[in-house]
Every structure is written in C-alpha cells, then in structure tokens.
Amino acid sequence: MEVKTAMNTYLKVEDVANLLEVTPSTISKYYLLFEKNNYRFNRNNQGKLMFSDNDVELFRKLIQLKNAPGFTVEKAVVQLLEENVVNTKQEIKKVEKELREQFLELRQEMNERFELINQKLDQIEGLTSKGEKSTKNSIEDREVLIERFKGGTLTADDVLYIMDNLENGERLDLLSKLYDLHYNFNPNHPKISEIEWED
Q1: pLDDT for 56-79, tens place per residue?
Q2: The pTM is what?
C-alpha cells in the first residue's frame, strides 16, 4: 500500500517488488546490502521500511548493473553508492551556486533599493531646506516691509509683492482698506461704488 506525504509517495517492500517485477525477498536482499554499506532507507513510526521514488530508481539501476559483465550484486551496490555520493556532491555544488547567484541578485536589488531610498531622503532634505530658507526669507521680507511701512517709504513694488503673497480673502480685504485709505487722503476725489478690475 502507498503512503502519501506532502512531498513524496512512499512504498512498502511488496509495492516496490511489484513495480520492478521481482520478489519481495529480492528487494529485502537488496536493501540489506545497501544498508550494510551505510545507506539508510526511511522507516515509518512502527519501524517498517518506506521506499521513496529515488529508492525505487536505485533498485532499478541495481537490477540493470548487476547483470553487466564483471559485476556482482555486491559490486553493483558499491558502484551505485559511489555514484550516489558523486551525484549528491554535484547537486550540493549546484544548489550552492544557485544560492550564491540568488544572494548576489538579492544584494544588488537591496543596494539599488537603498540607493533609491537615499535619493528620496536627499530630495526630502532638499525640499525641507528650501522650505526653511523660503520661510526665513519670507519673515525677513515681512520685517523689511513693516519697517518701510512705518517709515512711510513703502513703494508700489512693495504693495504688489504683498498682494502676490496674500490669500484671495486677504487680498480683497487689503484692497478694500487701500481703497478707503486712498479716499481718506483724497477727500475731493469722486468715490466709486466698487473696485473695478481690469482684465
């Protein structure tokens, strides 16, 4: 009977014997020879042997190799185990190479991401610096304008500068005050009901 796990299907001695068209005692003889040479097969919780697909392939190769000239079952087992060690080492090297390549790719990607983050931080720092400089300049400009206003030396350009830096509501409020101020200083000038805007 087959036992399935998440990754593999495991077979009992009888199942492997049926697959390879040999007797269960032959499979028992083969696995004992492999274990005599330090190869270990999986066992379930009750201690019964459970063979993987790789184990079945190993038995299949043994059946072919033992019939080759100059081979006995024992020599074939030793030969297959030596090949298995070589194959395992090659697989390990292959996996190591793949992991190294993946690591290098990941490191490259992380470096690129850090570089991008640093660029963004530099941009933010630059914007913050500009904002601070702009705020400082704005405060200095206001202080100069206040001094000019107090000294009565405010120019038309100063007024335009103030207008440009006001919100819409503040701009209208200032225009209204300037309008009233103009007529307080020029009482003989005819008054108009609304400020006329030129397009």
Answers
A1: 999 999 999 888 888 888 998 888
A2: 0.44
Tokens found for residue 31: 């696995």
DSSP string, 56-102: HHHHHHHHHHTTSTT--HHHHHHHHHHHHHHHHHHHHHHHHHHHHHH
Number of CB atoms found within 10 A of residue 26's CB: 17
- Length reported for the chain: 199
What does the alpha-carbon distance between residue 163 and residue 167 come to, in Å, rounded to a whole number? 8
How is residue 137 written in tokens? Answer: 């300049």
**Contact predicate 37/52, CB 8 Å:** no
Which residue carries 């033992």 as its tokens?
66
Measured distance CA(20)–CA(12) in Å, rounded: 13
- CA 74 from chain centre, in angstroms, equals 52
Tell me the CB-side half-sphere exposure of residue 87, using CA atoms within 13 A.
Answer: 8
First to last CA, the chain: 94
Chain position carrying tokens 């068209």: 21
- According to the model, what pLDDT value does residue 24 have? 92
